[in-house]
Amino acid sequence: MKRLARFAVGVVALAGAAGCLTARASEESSAKATPIFGVELPDGYRDWPLITVAREEWLKDIRAVLGNERALDAYRRGRLPFPDGTIIARLAWEYRASEENEAAFARVLKGPPGERFGSFVAGHPVNGVQFMVKDSKRYAATGGWGFAQFDDGKPADVKVHQGCFPCHEAARERDFVFSRHAR
Ligand code: HEC
After folding, report:
1. CA-based torsion, 26, 29, 34, 36: positive or negative
2. Ligand 1 atom closest to Cα of 131?
3. The ligand 1 atom nearest the CA atom of 128
4. For residues 157 and 31, is the Cβ–Cβ distance under 8 A?
5. How many CB atoms lie within 10 A of CB 36?
6. Which residue's CA is minimally distant from atom 7 of ligand 1?
7. Ligand 1 lined by 180 (C-beta under 6 Å)
8. What is the whole-number distance in angstroms between the Cα of residue 139 and the centre of ligand 1?
9. Which of the pair, 92 or 4, is modelled with greater confidence?
C-alpha cells in the first residue's frame, strides 16, 4: 500500500514536470503564433471548402475565402453569430493576365485581329493569408474573433493585427464577417 502511494506521488510529480515542459515548449513555439491574438497557422486550411471569391483592384489581387466545416455549416444554415470553433480563411493571389488563355480564345473565337478577351488568372500568392478564429470568451474584446495574418507562413507584426478589428467592425451586423456564401 505504501509502495502504491509512493508510486502515485511519483506519477503526480512526473505529470507536473511534463506540464512545465509543455508550457516551456509553447512559449518557445510562440514565434509561430500571431501577436495580440496568439493564433497559429491552422492545419489543413488549404483543403477547406470554398465560401466565395473576391477581387480587390486596389490591392491588385484575386482572393478566395475558405471556411472550416463549422463555418460552412453556419453559412448553410444562415446561423449568426458564428459558433465557437469557426475559422474563416482569406487567401489572395496576384491578378495576372493570361497570355496562354488569350491565345486560345483568339485562335478559336476568331475575333478581330489584336482583340483582347481579358483573361486573368491567379499568379503568385500575395497580401498574406488571413484568418478569423471564433472563440467568444478568449476574444470577447474583439467581437469573439481572433485575427491572424501570416506572410510566407510567418505571423505579421503587431501593427498589422491592430488594424483588423476596427475595419471589420463595419460588418458588425453580420458578426464582423463581410463575405457571403457564393452559391
Ligand atoms: C481596411 C479594412 C480591412 C482591414 C484592415 C482588414 N480587413 Fe479583413 N476584410 C475586409 C473586407 C472588406 C473583406 C471582404 C472582402 C475581401 O475579402 O476583400 C475582408 C475579408 C476578410 C476575411 C474573410 C471573412 C470576411 O470577413 O469576409 C478574413 C478572414 C479577414 N478579412 C481577416 C482579416 C485580418 C486577419 C486582418 C488583419 C490582419 C484584416 N482582415 C484586416 C476588410 C478589412
Report:
1. positive
2. 29
3. 38
4. no
5. 19
6. 164
7. no
8. 17
9. 92
Q: Which of 16-25, 81-90, 126-135 has the lowest mean pLDDT?
A: 16-25
56 in the Ramachandran plot: left (φ > 0), alpha (ψ -120 to 50) or beta?
beta
**Position 4 pLDDT exceeds 70:** no
C-alpha cell at 37: 491574438
Query: Dihedral of the CA atoms 167, 171, 176, 181 (nearest 10)?
Result: -120
Q: How far is the CA of 89 from the centre of ligand 1 (A)?
A: 9
Instruction: Specify the amino acid at residue 179.
Output: S
Q: State yes or no: pLDDT of 176 exceeds 50.
A: yes
Question: Which of 90, 112, 109, 92 minimizes the C-alpha distance to 101?
Answer: 109
Ligand 1 lined by 132 (C-beta under 6 Å):
yes
